[in-house]
């Protein structure tokens, strides 16, 4: 099929890329596809740093493509729209999360679950249908089909909205799917990092009682005083576990490290649910007795479809849910990765792309 005039000329782009699994970033020039008739092009102003970015740049999952420009928490302003775009116009505040395309015809796509489409195209480091490699938001501009663009309401600052496009939907979706969004329910949030702190905020906005579950007693004040959790439980303290036995309707488990599951099962009421959203490197041990006693359920969740992601962003705007962030310059990214690996951030680094990304010389 012949390309339209608006699709013929690729866009020059630049950003920062990792060239190999050492994970060291440096400036990089590349091309974005031209704005197609259903595409939205936007200037990237902010991009959050997800722990997945580190897994990918270090090729810890074995499928990275280099040079690799990460970033799937991308917020900016529309600069151009294709002739058949209906939902967006130049100047709109928008974002892109973890995916930029899907087949649109499978059973999952038909029910707004593009995130489970077998042919879903990730925002970076995969081959697109046209054979090109996708590049993420550590860059000056983005181009994507309007179906995969999220509108960011004016009431949310773009820098604080960016992490919601991954961290936000990652915890919001299982709360909705597993019925853990009803006012008055009691949920536990395991882990108080980039995902966990947003889960606490969404839980409180939904009218839930929220208990933070952590191995670190020193996180108690930030959980209760800073984030507004109702209670705090040290998962290694047997007295605290016993006192909380059978009190929770559900648990959102955000931890990506190995951790025992049996103590978490003990906290659930009959018919309680645990939703896993972290990605531990090695398989978790799941004792069957912990599920059988009390007819408990363990399940998983991975981001969300486009309809639900827009719903999440609108909910966040209405209820003043924001990610707690540390804004950094583009040239700080290598140091930021070292700090993420040390858990030395509260709670998400966001790169100020618009003000600090300079064209390569």
Automatic annotation (TrEMBL):
Q: Known catalysed reaction(s)?
A: D-mannitol + NAD(+) = D-mannose + NADH + H(+); (E)-cinnamyl alcohol + NADP(+) = (E)-cinnamaldehyde + NADPH + H(+)
Record GO terms (molecular function) = cinnamyl-alcohol dehydrogenase activity; mannitol dehydrogenase activity; zinc ion binding
Which controlled-vocabulary keywords does the entry list?
Lignin biosynthesis, Metal-binding, NADP, Oxidoreductase, Zinc
Domain Enoyl reductase (ER) spans what residues? 23-351
Q: Name one Pfam family in it.
A: ADH_N
- Pathway(s) the chain acts in: Aromatic compound metabolism; phenylpropanoid biosynthesis
Cofactor entry: Zn(2+)
| InterPro entries, alphabetized | ADH-like_C, ADH-like_N, ADH_Zn_CS, CAD-like, ER, GroES-like_sf, NAD(P)-bd_dom_sf
Q: What does this protein do?
A: Oxidizes mannitol to mannose. Provides the initial step by which translocated mannitol is committed to central metabolism and, by regulating mannitol pool size, is important in regulating salt tolerance at the cellular level.
Q: Which family does it belong to?
A: Belongs to the zinc-containing alcohol dehydrogenase family.
Against PANTHER family, the record matches this protein to: ALDEHYDE REDUCTASE
Assembly description? Homodimer.
- This one is known as Elicitor-activated gene 3-2, CINNAMYL-ALCOHOL DEHYDROGENASE B2
Q: Which organism is it from?
A: Hibiscus trionum (Flower of an hour)
């Amino acid at each position: 099929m012949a390309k339209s005039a608006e699709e013929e000329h690729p866009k020059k782009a630049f950003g920062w890329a990792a060239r190999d699994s050492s994970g060291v970033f440096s400036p990089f020039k590349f091309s974005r596809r031209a704005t197609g008739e259903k595409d939205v092009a936007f200037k990237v102003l902010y991009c959050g740093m997800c722990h997945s970015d580190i897994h990918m740049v270090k090729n810890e999952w074995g499928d990275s493509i280099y040079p690799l420009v990460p970033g799937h928490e991308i917020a900016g302003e529309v600069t151009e729209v294709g002739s058949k775009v209906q939902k967006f116009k130049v100047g709109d505040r928008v974002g892109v999360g973890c995916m930029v395309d899907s087949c649109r015809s499978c059973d999952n796509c038909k029910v707004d679950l593009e995130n489970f489409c077998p042919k879903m195209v990730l925002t970076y480091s995969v081959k697109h249908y046209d054979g090109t490699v996708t590049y993420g938001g550590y860059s000056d501009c983005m181009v994507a089909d309007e179906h995969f663009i999220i509108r960011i309401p004016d009431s949310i600052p773009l820098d604080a909205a960016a992490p919601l496009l991954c961290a936000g939907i990652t915890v919001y979706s299982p709360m909705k799917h597993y019925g853990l969004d009803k006012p008055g329910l009691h949920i536990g949030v395991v882990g108080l990092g980039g995902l966990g702190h947003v889960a606490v905020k969404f839980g409180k906005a939904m009218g839930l009682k929220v208990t933070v579950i952590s191995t670190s007693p020193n996180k108690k004040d930030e959980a209760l005083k800073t984030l507004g959790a109702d209670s705090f439980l040290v998962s290694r303290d047997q007295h605290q576990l016993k006192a909380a036995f059978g009190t929770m309707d559900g648990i959102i488990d955000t931890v990506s490290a190995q951790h025992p599951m049996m103590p978490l099962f003990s906290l659930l009421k009959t018919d309680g649910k645990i939703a896993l959203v972290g990605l531990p490197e090695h398989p978790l041990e799941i004792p069957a007795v912990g599920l059988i006693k009390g007819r408990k359920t363990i399940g998983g969740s991975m981001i969300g479809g486009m309809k639900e992601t827009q719903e999440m962003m609108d909910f966040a705007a209405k209820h003043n849910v924001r990610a707690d962030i540390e804004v950094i310059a583009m040239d700080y990214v290598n140091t930021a990765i070292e700090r993420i690996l040390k858990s030395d951030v509260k709670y998400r680094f966001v790169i100020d792309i618009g003000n600090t990304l300079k064209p390569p010389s």
